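Suppose you are handed a protein chain with no further information: no name, no annotation, nothing but its sequence. What can you learn? This example shows the usual starting point.
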Amino acid sequence: MKMKRRILKGGEFLVTEVGCDEVFTPEDFSDEQKQIGETTEQFVASELAPHIEEMDAGNFDLVVEGMRKAGELGLLMIDAPEMYGGLELDKATSMLVGEKLAPSGSFSVAFAAHSGIGTLPLIYYGTEAQKEKYLEKIISGEWVAAYCLTEPGSGSDALGAQATATLSADGRYYLLNGVKQFITNGGFAELFTVFAKIDKQHFTAFLVERGFEGLVVGPEEKKLGIKGSSTTPIILDNCRVPVENLLGEIGKGHKIAFNVLNVGRFKLGAGVTGAAKMALGEAIRYANERKQFGKPISSFGAIGEKLADMTAETFASESLVYRLAGLLDTKLATIDKGIDNYYEEYQKGIEEYAPECAISKVFCSEVLARVVDEVVQIFGGYGYVSGYPAERFYRDERINRIFEGTNEVNRLLIPGMILRKSLKGELPLQAEAMKAFEALMTPSFDELDQSDPFAAEKALLKCLKTLFLILAGAAVKKHLAGLQDEQEILIAAADLAIQIFAIESAVLRAEKIHPSASERKRQLLRAAVKVFTFSATEVAGSAAKKGAFYLEEGDNLAMILSGVRRFTRYDASGLLQAKRALARAASEEGRYIF
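A reasonable first move is to predict its three-dimensional structure. Written in structure tokens, the prediction is:
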């Protein structure tokens, strides 16, 4: 990325105005990035898409072969350091590859687990000897990698793991015992990052080869969806792991577990966005072909509205994902690769945007959920039977709201991380909350800039940020340190923050490309922003209203509810025309239009 951008703090979007020239968008891709995207698309179309049904039937040999071919194309080495044969490209490119792999169905799950949580612990925390031994095999696709954190009794509570590691009498091995559950790539992975507690106390990571004595791969899970990916338990029965395979520091396994999950979250956001674009395209094509009463069903308003809503939400999802890519890449570019603790600083750079990573995971996975639900509806009865793509989309989608941390857990993390930043003095949340309360008491008569096509949305965003600050301030005042246990309040705050980031991402992208776009494209950009902002404001308003009822009563409640009504006011005049314009364009082009 050539443009100079301000380095914003994680969560700062809630307390500052961001200019459209400060965000990265898909329109900013370099020729090299576009070429990598096209290579990925061609690989999916020629090598993977023809075999989706066979992979879903349990032919994992095709998955392993696909991984090797991905390795030959360099798709597994995007995040790996150059000194070990990697490409060491930026996060925007990494996200683009994840997005373009989405049409490969379950293969994309195997790929994401391997190239993300399977590979990154070794890159970020491995010793030189460990990288020399394993990394080339991993990034070439010779070996597939897996990540073993979850256990039958510990999912979201990762530190509640019961797996143990005990040093052998001769001091040469750690003996690992326990069961790891729901391990993606478990059936064919050759290298596992396994978490266990040394002496039942010190949570630590280990690099465990498939061939190590005492590692047993359990039977394949019979899953609802993503059937072409392997999911098994991994049983550790006095598994002998050489001491030199301890990863990172003793007792610091939580750093590896949680930092790598941040990467998994933003990559998942990119992948599900690609899936939404693909599923929407299938729905549009089917709606154009399917005729009822002598007309294509895409010509009916009831179907057209669905196509418009899906298009607008997918535009927002895409805008959000690549805005986050820009935040990460801008921050990471400031770190000197020559310093000894480069990956430690690199991890801190990613962790800075942990709230946005969680937002990406939640928002984008839920956009995909709504899209595939409507795709099934558009396909009608054919959407409910195998042999048509809608049925598989529906089954495969569901897992995205569960893994990489459930959406509930991620919702709790978002306001929690932002409030911690405020307490550390990294965000001026308290001062801004006081200003927000003043705004609540003061009527505003600001007039919109009629020359700005997105003036209404910008004014709304300012109001929504004020509303978030009012509710956050009231929550902190009422519950203080106990707020972390008030999950319903935190989730309501998260929903408001998520919609703010999503609306702003869509507006900034549209504003950025609007001046140089054709008149038709400008009309469609304005339509997408209006359609999405209308629905997102309804969600934000509902979350804010819930938060008010959860927090206040009497006069204070009445005052905040009055503020909710005032600060969620959005003039969506022309909404029907906007939806019809999006639906018409989608039908004419037969695909996602942005």
